[in-house]
Amino acid sequence: MVSIAAKNLLHDRTRLAISAGGVGFAIMLVLVLGATYDGVYRQAGLFVENSGADLFVGQAGVADTLHSFSILPLNLTDDIAAIPGVERVCAIISRTVEAHIGAAEHPRFVLVGYNESHGTAAPWKMLEGGRLPGPGEIVIDQVLARKDGVSLGAEVTLGGRTFRVSGVSVETNMFIMQYAFVRFEEIQGIVLPPGSVTYFLVKVSAGYDARAIGDEIERRVAGVDAFTIGELASNNREVISGSFLPILLVLYVTGFVIGIAVIGLTVYAATMERSREYGILKAIGAGNRRLAGLVLAQAILLAVFGFLAGLLITGAAGLIIGAAVPEMTLYFTPAALPQVFVASIGMSIVAASLPLGRLARIDPASVFRRG
Amino acid sequence: MDALRAAGLTKTYGEGDAAVRAVDAASLALRAGEVTLIMGPSGSGKTTLLFLLGGLLHPTAGHVWVNGHDLAGLRERELPGIRLRNFGFVFQDFNLLANLTAQENVQVPMELASVRPVKARERAAKILSALGLRKRLDFLPEKLSGGEKQRVSIARALANGPRVLLADEPTANLDSALGKTVAGLLRRIARATRAAVLIVSHDSRIVEVADRLLLMEDGRLRTMP
Known about the structure:
The structure holds 2 protein chains of 2 kinds.
Chain A (H helix, E strand, L loop, with lengths): L1 H10 L1 H37 L5 E5 L12 E2 L2 H6 L4 E13 L9 E7 L11 E4 L7 E5 H6 L7 E4 L2 E9 L9 E5 H4 L8 E2 L1 E6 L5 H11 L3 E5 H45 L1 H10 L3 H37 L11 H17 L3 H6 L10
Parallel strand pairs in A: 4-9, 6-8
Antiparallel strand pairs in A: 1-11, 1-12, 2-10, 3-4, 3-11, 5-8, 6-9, 7-8
Chain B lengths: L1 E12 L6 E12 L3 E5 L6 H8 L7 E6 L2 E2 L8 H8 E4 L11 H11 L4 H14 L15 H13 L5 E5 L7 H18 L2 E5 L11 E6 L2 E4 L2
């Protein structure tokens, strides 16, 4: 019976190609939306996770590094360092700034003043150049470099100071904003008032619990909140979930509805077009359940063709998106493909139910009537 | 031995003054190995009678017994299985599935009856070869002549070894010579397989293949001498 389903589908190859392409586009939409969300979600925590610290200490009330702004006096360093279990404390600056590249480009990015003594909050993965910028040097994200045509050796001006690009980092793109890194002392007093910092990054001594030390810091130092790396990365990702997820869910559902509509329309048209043949099968002895199985087999085959087409279209879309919108980081999780495949089979099951009512009403005796 | 028996079969369409009795208390028996021919003018009710006998239509009154089942007492969803295992249908318009080859068309009833595909394929080839279509196994219906299509249709009807073969105007779309060939084939099949063959037809040229001739007029069935 599956061969009948396959032959009915393959009989009109143009229609099959159009239908599989339509399903493929719906699947591409779902895959790309998912990969965009997963990409942004993953990136949201990477800076914190790769900072080299165990705790982030920020201004009280600041719960994430994405849209909250923390400012603390530098002289809290000693207070925090004095707490038992704190191995070291590094102050960093993290601030959204506007830079000048050449005469025309004024990119905005998150400038991080990393701690050069321990490499804390420095870039962690490089495309080219040195990882730790030295005096007068800056490391910028690869998307920023591509968007603004900046290469190694180019000059970037910030608050009246000029930096030479010494490296291009990866995984430092946050979709709407990218990171750049300079030495901490080079931007002290430039992007924040003198004597101010954004966060203190704390390394906890071996054998101490980071959360317990964080609690102790909050108890002893007024006006600060301390977060473990896991907590802060999670807070960052919740910001992404909260702002992106509802939009993505709507688009996800749209993708599925399009897929169901395309499969449903194709299977419905194919079923109605062949209603006489279904009548023949009924007359011969096929029950409604067998015919429903036949329609379902067609829908599933179409979903499989559509899924394969979707993979090809997604591959092409990934290349186009990467070239046209470099800040859009697509991250395909290992679970994404099986999930979307199962979902496409689900789409086909829903779509196959559309013509079942008509199928059940086909009169097997009708095939005896002429022509 | 009776392969099928019908008693008091009646089919009425509409109600009250508008009621039309398409089949009126028809009774008959189809015997294994025999060819029964029902003739009659258009609108006489012979095709409706064929529907009733083949379990394609529920009678208003009366009974049809085949293989121990009274079709009139069965539920709608039970009838396909009864048709599949007891009946073979030969249609005037052949009604082959256009996207399947001759061999695949013959396999369909067997696959519906859960015969393993390999076995169904072998049996389909054997039946088609016996009907002279050995070289047409992989042909799509559109590549076959009218006579060949009707032989594939007959092969499909024989696929599950039916007790009763019901043929609706099987020669109507064939020329005289081919019509006679197909009618002769149905007679040989009745003899060889012990299936009861019922032919409903206008075609008086095939009278000679019939063991019994019945006439249908205004929904009533009469035996011809």
